[in-house]
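Bug #77: duplicate submission created two jobs. Keeping one. Sequence:
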Amino acid sequence: MVKKIEDFSCSECGQLHCYRRDKKFPDRCPTEAVGAERIAALREIYRGDSPDARAARAAAEIEGLYYCKISRVEEIVAFARRIDARRVGIASCLGLAGESRTFARVLRAAGLEPHTVLCKVGSIDKADVGIPDSLKVRRGAFEACCNPILQAQLLNAEKTQLNVIVGLCVGHDSLFMKHSDALVTTLVVKDRTNGHNPVSTLYTAKTYGRRILDPEHLKTL
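Kept job's structure:
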């Protein structure tokens, strides 16, 4: 269902005035709603020397230097260096272990220290956490559940300073981020049907992917 106009938020905005200040703020714009005092306070936070401020400025610097020039793999290396994150955790899907192995090689080549934990760590059968056999990918066999909380705990124990998600499932990635002590960024968003390129579904929403706009289809998910 298309949002009604009274539910206006940034996804309905056609001005994007917040970026260049070359138009005007629309009615009910969040920027205007939060007020000048709050914006001023946030400005001071970003100007400070806290870890959040340093991370925000590092990200902006990388955008300015390398926008459309380097890959996301290289951006993560650049970001890690700028926030002095030598110990980098990799929270990887088992199905992307090979990609994580290559990424770890990249980090080592950059002088960083990778620590990888696969999603099936702990090797707990799905049946033991209440998943019926009918919902296993391979029925009638041992099948370990993903364990994002343990992934986070083990990387926390390694005192990683930046954690990188490589293909964790929807929801498992959320739990990993919730329990990670270090900042988290994503290298790979798993989407088997689209070659790990989920935005392609949005690009084809009016053609091959039009079922995602069908309320009846969405009700079945």
